[in-house]
Amino acid sequence: MPTLPALAYQRDSTPTSTEPSSKEGTIVGTPSLSFKSETSSVIEKLPWDGYLEEDLPEKKEGKIFRDLRHIVFTIYHRIFGIVFFANAGILIALFVYGVTSQRLGLITVANIFVAIMMRQDYVVNAFFDVFTSVPQSWPLWFRLLMARVYHLGGIHSGAAVSGTIWLAATCAQGTQERVSGNGPISVATLTFAWLILIFLGCIIGFALPWFRSASHDTFERIHRFAGWTATGLVWVHVVLLTNDWRGEKSLGYALVHSAPMWLMFIITASLALPWTRLRKVPVRSVVLSDHAVRMYFQYKVFGMHPRPVPGSFGRVSLDPLQEWHAFACVPVPGTDEWSMVVSQAGDWTTKLIRDPPSEIWVRGTPVSGVLRVNIMFRRVVFVATGSGIGPIAPCLFAHDQEHRLLWTGSNIRKTFGDDLVNAVTAADPDAVIYDTRKYGRPDMVKLTYKMVKDFNAEAVVIISNEPLTKKVVYGLMSRGVPAFGAIWDS
Ligand SMILES: Cc1cc2nc3c(=O)[nH]c(=O)nc-3n(C[C@H](O)[C@H](O)[C@H](O)COP(=O)(O)OP(=O)(O)OC[C@H]3O[C@@H](n4cnc5c(N)ncnc54)[C@H](O)[C@@H]3O)c2cc1C
């Protein structure tokens, strides 16, 4: 009778041609070692056995302090606050020491510049490249600090909100200068300034979290089209404002020596860049089940060399002007292809599964996300629910550290297919694959905590739905276990 190590047993409910029947268990990675689990001769031992009886340690700190730290003043909000209050300080100083609509216009454009650049694919990747380059041998506290790089969206929103307030100040100051005859600002310049203010107000209003999560496609369209329109209006405004304040100089000379003009030039180039790489590429779609499709691409589709970085996402579309969807780039070990695993999550993904494409639009370059931070840690527990395995699989395949996977889902092998499940279990032979259809939903905080302790992990990275991600990250962080998950800021 084989003795089973606690975490060496994986049970996946759906049998396949290479698997034993559903009444048998398999030691993953050594398929020859199978045993009857429902016969009286063997007591079935599951890797999570007993976790419910184990006590979770008390959360650290009092509830109010804890919630302020982990929910209210997240790193994202703290970065937003730094950008916002730095701007507020400059604004107050300017109004105390003297201000003109020209100077306000410059600071407005500078903030818009920062906001847009912080969403630029290459800039985001550069941040991730630098911050995640910290060696695994460096002190944990420093790596944990650097790993918070995925909160950099706080700079984007902080600068966008500040830029809008600066623009409101520009409008107010310009109107006051115009009414009092105390400056050269023209009616046309003022009109454009107020128009841009309306556009930016709308963009921010429709980007508020409650609207963004309730109606993400509409948010994206408004962000894109209103953003492009606002950029065009800002160009006109910059030229008009420069013209108003050029004095005796020629307009051409004044423009060439105008900082806002050059900032606008970079902004426009940066917005246009991903679209210069818009192309329709062949895709080999394999429908895995009613719930998932896997799309296979050739390398270099995005101009990638030699392969997408684990933790990066590519954008695909069936209708480039209307909607784009980002999915993890999953290498296919031992081949020249990479793939995207797309599971059913709405109308668009349902259409993709029912009517899988042979060609699809791509643009830009794959962009790094929260999962990139995994490479900074020596021992990581990855947690995936359902299609969360898509982004996590490349990290497992890359073997950048010792890792253990917890993957929960319903009928996993049937939903995601043998190829993916086999590749995942080959990358982590001790992966814990938990069939929720068979065993019900686990207590994810408790189970993850147990795995962290058993595996002696430095950090946890989770890809799941929003409520569960927040629950697990909070449940672990408040007990002193470093945990990373998406923050739904875009
Ligand atoms: C950074 C990031 C990248 C992503 N990349 C991709 C991608 O490339 N492809 C893709 O298709 N999707 C992707 N997603 C979406 C993501 O995979 C899903 O939002 C998430 O995994 C939910 O999976 P699900 O839709 O299968 O359903 P879920 O509702 O999460 O269910 C999946 C399984 O988890 C179990 N479960 C759910 N909630 C709980 C709970 N509270 N307690 C215990 N068990 C629970 C369920 O029983 C079910 O069996 C990504 C998401 C993020 C944040």
How would you describe this structure to a colleague?
This protein has 490 residues and is α/β, with parallel strands linked by helices. The protein folds into three domains: 1-47 and 369-490, Nucleotide-binding domain of ferredoxin-NADP reductase (FNR) module (Rossmann fold, 3-Layer(aba) Sandwich); 77-276, no CATH class; 279-368, Elongation Factor Tu (Ef-tu), domain 3 (Beta Barrel), CATH 2.40.30.10. It is 48% helix and 18% strand. The strands form four sheets. Strands 14-13-12-15-16 form a five-stranded parallel β-sheet, sandwiched between helices. A hairpin with a 3-residue loop joins strand 7 and strand 8. Helix 3 (101-117) runs antiparallel to helix 6 and helix 16 packs across helix 17 (466-477). The longest helix has 29 residues, at 216-244. The two termini are 53 Å apart. Residues 327-328, 340-343, 345, 369-370, 385-388, 390-391, 408-410, 436, 441-442, 444, 463-465, 468, 486 line the site of flavin-adenine dinucleotide. The chain crosses the membrane at residues 75-98, 104-128, 149-169, 189-210, 222-242, 254-275. Residues 13-26 have a biased composition (Low complexity). Residues 1-29 are annotated as: Disordered. This is Nonribosomal peptide synthetase 12. Keywords: Membrane, Transmembrane, Transmembrane helix.
